[in-house]
Each structure stands twice: as C-alpha cells, then as structure tokens.
Amino acid sequence: MGFQGQVRSKLLTSAHPAGPQATSVQHAVARLKVTLDDVKPKVQRRIEVPLAIRLDRLHLVLQAAISWTDSHLYEIRARTPR
Fold first, then answer.
1. Is the whole-model pTM more than 0.70?
2. Distance CA 57, CA 70 (A)
3. Which of 4, 5, 18, 50 is most buried, taking the most CB atoms under 10 A from its CB?
4. 1-24: buried (b, 16+ CB within 10 Å) or exposed (e) per residue?
C-alpha cells in the first residue's frame, strides 16, 4: 500500500556566532511539514533539515520521521510558500 504526501517548506536561518551577515546556505534550515494523504487518522510531521541536504539523506530522514522501514512507496510534492 503506497502513500502520497505533501512536503511544505519554510526557509529558516540560524543565528551565526559571527552575526547575521555571516549566515549562509550552510547554516540555512528548511522546516518541512510532511502530511500523508488518504490516511485516517491524519499523519503529520514537522521536521527541520539543512537546506543543502542531499535527496538520499532526506529520504532517510523521512523514513525515520514516519517510522517506515523503507518498504512504502511515496512521492514528494512541493508547494510554493504562501
């Protein structure tokens, strides 16, 4: 049984010890809202990942956040922030 979900993101910047001018992509964080479609009760997670995370690492984070064992088919759909 496969699940489809939505991932919404919001760009955050973390405080850098050298001040706001030193904030870079390396310190930027994406806050993701992960929602599984067609599931009752509603399953939703909010996670924060580095903005520069590789897709293979994001896959591992999603698997852990939803307690999956790499046996579910899923797709990622991104929406533009409001």
1. no
2. 13
3. 5
4. eeeebbbbbeeeeeeeeeeeeeee
The Cα 33–Cα 48 span in angstroms is 9
Per-residue pLDDT of the chain (82 residues; tens, 9 = 90+): 344 445 555 555 555 555 555 555 567 898 888 888 888 999 999 999 999 999 999 999 999 999 988 888 888 777 776 6
Question: To which residue do tokens 């806050």 refer?
Answer: 31
Q: Scanning the structure block, which residue is given the tokens 């910047």?
A: 13
20: left (phi over 0), alpha (psi -120 to 50) or beta: alpha
Which phi and psi (to 5°) does residue 40 adopt? -120, 130
